[in-house]
Amino acid sequence: MGACCSDAAGGNYSGGHADNNYMNGDSEVSNIIPSLSGSRGLPSYVQLQLSASNLRVNDCSQKADSMVVAYVKKKDGSWEEIGRTEVVANSLDPVWVTNVERTYSFEENQQLMFRVYHVDFKFSGTPTENLPLSEQVLLGEVECLLAEVITTRQPLTKEIQKPKEQSETDGNSQHLGTLVIKVQETVHSKSLVEIGFHCSELDNKELFSKSDPFLKVSRFTGYGNPLQVYQTEVKANNIHPTWRPMKATLQHLCSGDMDRPLKIECYDFNSSGKHDIVGSVQLSLKELQEMAETCNDVELKRVLDGKVGGKLCVQSFTINTYNTFLDYIFDGYELSFMVGVDFTASNGNPLQQDSLHYIDPSGKLNVYQNVIQAFADIISVYDTSKQFYAWGFGGRPIDGPVSHCFALNGKVATAAEVTGIPGIMHAYSQALRHVALAGPTLFAPVINMAASIASEYLSQEKKRYFVLLIITDGVITDSGPSITALVKASTLPLSVFIVGVGGADFSEMEILDSEKHGMVTPDGQLAVRDIVHFVAMRGDLLNAAALSKALLAELPRQFLAYMDLKSIAPQQNHML
Q1: How confident is the model at residue 249 (pLDDT cuts 50, 70, 90)?
Q2: Omega of the bond prior to 226 within 30 degrees of 0, cis?
Q3: Are strands 137-145 and 156-159 parallel, antiparallel or unpaired?
Q4: Of 110, 148, 559, the residue nearest 381 (C-alpha)
């Protein structure tokens, strides 16, 4: 090893600008996972702690030797096992020590099932993972959403129910006990690791210029195979490169085990996608930390011939905890759903089957209902009040002029609240009976109304963040006022998601996507943060559930940006 901390020659940080040409090719380098580029794009990891009380075994005088098996529902409706507790012997009020760990993503509704088993005495001493469930006594089960556990302000208590297969044959509704589920976020998913890598004396793989190196960082799976977890940018024409610091959570890199080895590989970029290996090394996070402290470097060697291809050093290494989306939810913050529906004439006559607003007598949802359902299914779990604002725009209510912000429930726009998802659907279908489709398509009035309501919740004590969904079949005609409204709303606890439905050309709507283009008013005022995202319901996003998942993945990042802007920190700590 040699000293490297002061050796930064040729490794000046370029901010990636010099490397853009390399990032446009069809190569592994262009496929860097976007969520790894920031400190808050990664999912959280939670642990579910389980206990039960008053378990009932078939023989009421018998105490249970019980364990819990946890499942998650897959897309096809089947259940996949995700974990088992240990067996707690001779107790009707067991507290299990082994937790069930899950990856939490806000944009997904994870349906969980917990089955409580009484383990036959003949299997005493058998590891739980080897227990044949078909030979144990199934005492009962509990189903719930992971989000339901997370949003409960105290441990979630559920009555244990008879398994469905038993309920069909036995209508007896005896008390089977209760299951208590407590959730905590692992500290490893809140710990952000930031590492500054530098290489020196790299082999030059080019004939007429210098190499274009980049690093790959991989962890090893349980089967010993490397799994890539990070990739740097390419440093063009540079054999002494310094890359932008790597940022990833401790959970993502090593599941919290600082001694777990990582594979670090240095490659010379080729536009063909066939990159040349310069050299590699295996180091744990603990060893990388020591390298930063001692200013030592290590050799990068090629596996095939053992030749040294250069030196790697760690210029900086930090681990810091940060506030996550779950910290705020655990602290009592809630999300309020709002929706604005396009009532312009281009949607077609609601009485005709080809209309986007056609209400099918069979109960089949139209495209507007599908999008509302998909978004509200996710967001509504985070609102205990279940009071949602529902507006229309571009329509002409009975005996009135065209309105660009009217309440679907027929009241004044400021009193547009309805109860639950059924309330939205009922108000929407009733509005189609009493509102004539008109135009034009203006967003600003609805955005301003939502912003006015959100402005009443600036106080940290109110702990509420608003999510406005706008569904439209056409391009807006008030882009200037809409952008001004969005820029002003960027200081408020509000996010806006816009979904384009139908066959219109939505290319002009891209100006509303502040993440892609920034957000500037006609007079030059800048948005202080990204609050809006537009997506057309096309291609892979033709399914409403897939579309809502893609859009709502943005929400935690926007939520945290608001908390940073207002310097609001959660008050409670829910870490393991």
Answers
A1: confident
A2: no
A3: unpaired
A4: 148
pLDDT above 80: residue 324? yes
**Could you give the angle at the alpha carbon of 468 between the alpha carbons of 462 and 473, nearest 5°?**
175
User: How far apart are the C-alpha atoms of 551 and 473, rounded to whole Å?
Assistant: 18
Expressed in percent and rounded to 5, the helix, strand and coil fractions of the chain are 25, 30, 40
Two structure tokens written together for 483: 């952008």
Cα R_g (the chain), whole angstroms: 28
Distances (CA, A) of 140 to 61, 158, 438, 556: 18, 11, 55, 35
In which region does residue 28 sit, left (phi positive, over 0), alpha (psi from -120 to 50) or beta (all else)? alpha
212: closest CA among 274, 275, 259, 157?
275
Q: Which amino acid is at 157?
A: T
Residue 218 has pLDDT above 50, yes or no: yes
Distance CA 429, CA 427 (A): 6
Cβ(393)–Cβ(403) below 8 Å: yes
Is residue 43 pLDDT above 90, yes or no? Answer: no
Sorted by sequence, the CB contacts under 8 Å of residue 504 that are 6+ apart come out as 346, 473, 474, 475
List the Cα angle 546/547/549 in 5-degree steps: 65
Q: Tell me the sheet residues that pair with 234.
A: none
What pLDDT score does 169 carry? Answer: 56
Structure tokens at 562: 């608001």
Bridge partners (DSSP) listed for residue 217: 230, 264
Burial category of 369 from C-beta neighbours within 10 Å (exposed 0-12, middle 13-18, buried 19 and up): buried
Identify the pLDDT of residue 2.
57
241 by Cβ neighbours in 10 Å (0-12 / 13-18 / 19+) ranks as: buried
Tokens found for residue 426? 């009922």
Average pLDDT, the chain: 87
**Can you tell me the distance from the alpha carbon of 134 to that of 146, in angstroms, rounded to the nearest whole number?**
26
**Average pLDDT of span 384-393:** 97
Rounded CA-CA distance 18/11 in Å is 13
Widest CA span in the chain: 85
Residue with tokens 């290996």: 277
Residue 343's identity, in one-letter code, is F
Band of pLDDT at residue 220, cut at 50, 70 and 90: very high
Cα–Cα dist 555/494, whole Å:
10
pLDDT given at position 180:
98
Strand order in the sheet with 137-145: 79-84, 66-73, 111-118, 137-145
Q: Which residues contact 205 (CB under 8 A, 6 or more apart)?
A: 211, 268, 276, 278
DSSP state of 301: E
Place of tokens 């274009």: 212
Structure tokens at 165: 């297969």
pLDDT band per the 50, 70, 90 thresholds, residue 167: low
DSSP string computed for 383-399: -SS-EEEEEEESEEETT
User: For residues 179 and 157, what is the distance between their CA atoms, to the nearest angstrom?
Assistant: 6
